[in-house]
User: What shape does this take?
Amino acid sequence: MSGGGGGAPGPEDTGSQSTNVFGEAPPAQVDLNLTALMDILSNLLFFLLASFGATIVMAINTTVPTQSESKTDVADTAQSVTLNVNVSKKQVDINASGTQQSEAELAAFRKIIPNVDGVPNFPAITDHLYDVKQKYPRSDTMILMPEPGVRYDTMIRLMDAAREKSVRVGLTSSMVPLFPSVVISTMVK
Assistant: This one.
């Protein structure tokens, strides 16, 4: 016999099929077209993001102005006053001012609260502001006038004391807003 007859394949003749370590033929090669899948996923992602944005907008508290002949959006000035709070190193002087109240009504809420150990008596200030808020529920503005030399942290603590008060009714307690709008001014001599 000559040459390359019917014997075992030589090193050059490996055949067109290869096998794995177990002698099995590999699976046929498959080309996947992922374009349709990517289109579906991108559309799904778009709608998820859009719905997530809508839920955030739904969580924002908003009001819509309404037109009514009997009601007005302007606060009832008879139920609101502005507090003037003079802060010195010795005391806190609280005065109420308003346009619809008499001098006697406003004078009833004038109070001088002395400092305790050089620090304002924050619980007494909060209690007095709560009393004013009970009489004038639409009030929300306080003008804070510090004397030169009053510390910055004292001003911050005064604003915190004027923001809200914890009120306990029965077994439940809630935070009642007092005077959250604060204007800082200088004392006029």
Residues 35-59 form the longest helix (25 residues). The chain has a mean pLDDT of 79.
